[in-house]
């Protein structure tokens, strides 16, 4: 039993073995376990996609850490160029007409994390953040290769663009309007990423440094 | 063109003894706050001298009366599934047939199929009838462990003891297309056969002398797996069946499954995208009726007018720890629609 003096005594609804017997905890767990989950319950506030990629984690890191490669594996972001020497880049997002996307890579080779801090239309507040965690599959699946976990969180700007004044066309689609399709879009892009990396790794081709700027115009 | 076979009638018999949860009041109290796992309010207990055959005879008589009025001859095929056979080396079929004044060409006592045995018996019967082996069939399901196994002094205080309830359900089949069985899908997952068994404190065989009381138990380590399995198996088999007959699962008018607990009922309904009123539920009143749940639950709904001519009925469930799963589709009283 949790004693009245416990630092947890006043915190309600904790599920701990001291206060909930195993059988009741199992019942609670079973209650929480459904056969299916509504899309919104899973992807409404957070959107995580993940997969195994048959390519070494260091190569996956190098590929993801280079913004130019987004031209290859994303559906719509193209032609990133440095804006200045701060690491800020600008490119095009072809999801909408005449739309600039600003991005900065925040990567940590030791931790094998590659995050993209992005925004549409302006580079002062990079609020649209793509979190990528690269995990050696040897650790978690006992096989060579990589597990990639990619998460987006539903920042309030997805629902309300605070910079409407920067958009000349009032009918232009807003990135947040597409949140219900993020799972599908990100899943498809992760499929692209996996296909490219696995193709090159299987054939001994260097995974990065291939970008050919194809004819995408604003 | 295969011979059509119809599920034309149902019957049920419930033991007199209606037992409230306070009869047990043992380890199940720990689950009182659980929406899904608190004990069902009521269940029936088979009487100390009541046999499976007694229940079947009681349930079958009105069904056979109606069959006779319809002009049917004697029953050609009798299939029983009894959870706890009164005699371990013979089934109830022959005694039932005799007491009902029948001498069927086929008497089959099937001892597998557990909670989905009604669907399995339906598949068996339909196969035999389509081959010309029988014109009429009586399918009999008895659950009789609640008043016998789960009332024993050391068993009745366990948390799972209040869940089972006793009862008998009957289905009657006739060759013809008046209420046709559209299709049946049964899947065997034989690898799960040993995940449920009997438990005795002193590990004796059930037939050996001793003081320990018999319990039915799922392997502890498998409970989570069985939950996952159950969540998956029934929606899968129903979806496969619906695909084959060309309907979407939300178009099922009446779904009748086994009634193991509220969680599975909720999850199956959700997975098949059915409104609660489309999924019949007798759990609160009768507890877990095992194999008898499908025919009893359907019979009550038919009797209460909750099943309409032309309705697409789907009967489904899974057995034991998942060693069999099945679903059958019936166009209820298609001829009257």
Automatic annotation (TrEMBL), chain A:
InterPro entries: START-like_dom_sf. This is SRPBCC family protein.
TrEMBL record, chain B:
Residues 112-186 form the Beta-ketoacyl-[acyl-carrier-protein] synthase III N-terminal domain. Residues 242-332 form the Beta-ketoacyl-[acyl-carrier-protein] synthase III C-terminal domain. Keywords: Acyltransferase, Transferase. InterPro entries: ACP_syn_III_C, ACP_syn_III_N, Thiolase-like. This is 3-oxoacyl-[acyl-carrier-protein] synthase III C-terminal domain-containing protein.
